[in-house]
Specification:
heterodimer; A: alpha+beta; 4-stranded antiparallel beta sheet; B: 5-stranded mixed beta sheet; 3 helices; 5 strands; about 20% strand
Chain lengths: ~160, ~80
């Protein structure tokens, strides 16, 4: 299931709704992406971030997320999966994304969840504009994300 | 052909979207990018280094060799940074 929305989500409620009554599920894994309050990778080196705005390409976002989820479903025996991604203005501490997977066995749920967030990071058309003391700056893509995504490419 | 611009590609070009008539000589994404560059200083600045430009044709990522027609929706944007 895919949702792209401006509003916040309640992680507990989402996980409950995703899996309630499905008694073949043995494990649920979730990843929640959150807005950090600094630029870059290290807090003592990065400028503070007061807010960020997430822009996206709606028609393509829906297609890409659906494709990525279909890939996960074809690779692992999932009982349920969910991707929620927010757009618009967000502040430090706000949720950005929720990826959740449920399977009979934990190793499938863990792998599929990691796959989903890794591919989402490099394939879903979202862009972050950070609001810092030095002005608004577009976040640059991180090559680490390409490396993390590439490990799931089929050889 | 409908063309969409996102993130800093949009701000440098100064447009979110436009409709362009594709010149007859333009057949591929690569040729289209070269042609766009010549349309003004904003385009030249945004497309200075096409290594930092991603292209989608009809909402699918497309490389320079993909062929274009007037009914396509083409989008230009920087490498994505969601999640």
């Amino acid at each position: 299931m895919i949702r792209v929305q401006r509003e916040d989500f309640d992680v507990g409620r989402e996980l409950y709704d995703l899996t309630a009554g499905k008694h073949s599920i043995g494990g649920i894994v979730s990843f929640v992406g959150v807005v950090r309050d600094f630029v870059g990778r290290e807090r003592d080196k990065g400028a503070p971030v007061a807010a960020m705005t997430l822009e996206h390409y709606p028609a393509m976002t829906e297609r890409q997320l659906a494709d990525i989820e279909a890939q996960a479903t074809s690779r692992w025996p999932l009982e349920a999966s969910l991707i929620i991604h927010r757009f618009g203005r967000l502040e430090p501490g706000d949720h950005i994304v929720l990826v959740a997977t449920a399977a009979a066995h934990r190793e499938d749920a863990f792998a599929a969840c990691q796959f989903l967030i890794d591919w989402l990071k490099t394939k879903a058309p979202f862009w972050k504009l950070e609001d810092t003391a030095e002005g608004a700056k577009w976040v640059a893509a991180d090559v680490r994300d390409d490396t993390l995504a590439a490990r799931w490419e089929k050889k | 052909m409908k063309v969409l611009y996102f993130a800093w590609v949009r701000t440098k070009i100064g447009l979110a979207d436009e409709t362009v008539s594709l010149p007859k000589s333009i057949e591929t994404v690569g040729q289209f990018l070269q042609w766009l560059k010549s349309r003004g200083p904003g385009f030249a600045e945004a497309l200075k280094d096409t290594k930092f430009i991603r292209v989608a044709v009809n909402q699918e990522f497309a490389d320079d060799s993909v062929r274009l027609t007037d009914s396509d929706e083409v989008a230009l944007f920087p490498p994505v940074t969601g999640g």
